[in-house]
Amino acid sequence: MLLLLLSMTISPDINGQQRFPMPEFESGYEYPDVSTPEPRSLTLEYIDVIVLLAMLSVTSWLVIKKRSRRYILWLSVGALLYFGFWKNGCVCSVGSVQNMVLSLSDSSYAVSYAIIAFFTLPLLFSLGFGRVFCASVCPLGVIQDLVIVKPVKVPVWVRKSLGMFPFVYLALAVLYAATGTDFIICRYDPFVGIFRMGAEFHLIVLGIAFLLIGMFVARPYCRFVCPFGALLKITSLFSKHHMSITPAQCIKCKLCKDSCPFDAIEQPTPDKAVSELKGKTGKFILYAAIIPLLMFVGGWALSSSHVFLAKAHPDVYLAHLLIEQPEVMNDLDNLDVQTFLGSDRTLDSLVQDAETVQAGFYTGAWLTGAFIGLVAGFFLVSQYIIRRRTDYEPHRGDCYSCGRCFKYCPVEK
Ligand code: SF4
Ligand code: SF4
Asked: I want to staple 365 with a disulfide (CB 3.0 to 4.6 A). Which of 28, 303, 399, 413 is the partner?
């Protein structure tokens, strides 16, 4: 119902955009690459959402009921071809966070119902069934999953430390989207160049590097970069029907222990660990108490850099350039400057707009820094929290529901 209401309010804007195709210039001018998606035809958007919904539903059934790694794998190949290579990786759920944020912060930015669906459906399914979206629907995840050759174990401290980065990246992506500066998740998406069979050289190199590393460190982008994965990690912790390694009772044979390439299988909690933790209550209280301090320090540190951060915004960049190097006005090759000089904007109005953006960055950087401080605080505190487990279980936040561990369980056979 919510999707329907939102689509009724926003679709006219999108339709209007689609009625007037972009003009072609006789001068041979070519439109620059943009990181925000072009609107697709409504029919294609309907089809995309139906395919997404169908794939999420089928994957959930395959993971929870059918318990078939083979079918999950075939479905994931289909998703890679459809959402990756045919749709050119756009619009995808991973980047949709930014569209949602920009539409909330800028009333003139229309977001289509398809983007809303791409953002909400994977999160809703994760609340029901875990990260089934990551299992076989996300093209970014699937392309990495298919190249895993000989996964190595990543030391716990490295895994936990790097595991904070997706939250930091998410916070920065929200800041840049909310200020209308850029969609950094899309701009630095390492796989979109592979899906489109062409991109800037450094992005192709980045994509290939991720795939090469991914042969040994399984799904490096998913585990240590993906900001949407950070959201899915949280929602999946509360999933109602998460996959289980064994179809019935765990007999603690340990055969599944090393079967997960993502180190997402948790062992039964040793009694020793519980008693050791009891002696560390003081540290737990100390770290919990300093969370507000970490939030303040994070907010203060990032807000101190707001002028630097804001320079990524085109207006702020141009205002700084024109004030600090006025001679660029004579540079006929500088397209940004010449476009500005040819427009009816004055330097004063540009500076005023830049100041407004900078003020937005100041507030946004405080909130972003405080969020990063909060994440760091939770990371510290989580070292002193353990959940008593009597069986071998997947970690609900880290498990991608790939189904690899099914075949290791003798109870399954
Ligand atoms: S973690 Fe991110 S990139 Fe990986 S499968 Fe999930 S949504 Fe896709
Ligand atoms: S289903 Fe989860 S626990 Fe099992 S191998 Fe895949 S990611 Fe690991």
From this structure: 303
Residue of minimum CA distance from atom 6 in ligand 1? 134
Q: Does the pLDDT of residue 19 top 60, yes or no?
A: no
State pTM to two decimals.
0.88
Question: Residue 24 domain-assigned?
Answer: no
| 281 falls within a domain | no
210-261 tens-digit pLDDT: 999 999 999 999 999 999 999 999 999 999 999 999 999 999 999 999 999 9
Q: How many domains does the structure of the chain reveal?
A: 2
Which protein residue has the closest C-alpha to ligand 2 atom 3? 394
Ligand nearest to the CA of 89: 1
- The rounded Å distance from CA 65 to ligand 1 centre is 22
State whether 154 and 205 are in the same domain: yes
| Three-state DSSP string of the chain | CHHHHHHHHHHHHHHHHHHCCCCCCCCCCCCCCCCCCCCCCHHHHHHHHHHHHHHHHHHHHHHHHHCCHHHHHHHHHHHHHHHHHHCCCCCCHHHHHHHHHHHHHCCCCCCCHHHHHHHHHHHHHHHHHCCHHHHHCCHHHHHHHCCCCCCCCCCHHHHHHHCCHHHHHHHHHHHHHHCCCCCHHHHCCCCHHHHCCCCCHHHHHHHHHHHHHHCCCCCHHHHHCCHHHHHHHHHHHCCCCCCCCCCCCCCCCCCCCCCCCCCCEECCCCHHHHHHHHCCHHHHHHHHHCHHHHHHHHHHHHHHCHHHHHCCCHHHHHHHHHHHCHHHHHCCCCHHHHHHHHCCCCHHHHHHHHHHHHHHHHHHHHHHHHHHHHHHHHHHHHCCCCCCCCCCEECCCCCCCCCHHHHHCCCCC
Q: Are residues 43 and 121 in the same domain?
A: yes
For ligand 2, atom 8, name the residue with the nearest CA.
260
Is 273 among the domain residues? no
Q: Show the domain range for 255.
A: 2-15+39-261+394-408
Q: Tell me, what's the pLDDT at 385?
A: 84
- The answer to whether residue 413 sits within a structural domain is no
pLDDT band at 280 (very low <50, low <70, confident <90, very high): confident
Q: Show the ligand 2 pocket: residues with CB < 6 angstroms.
A: 243, 259-260, 262, 264-265, 394, 399-405
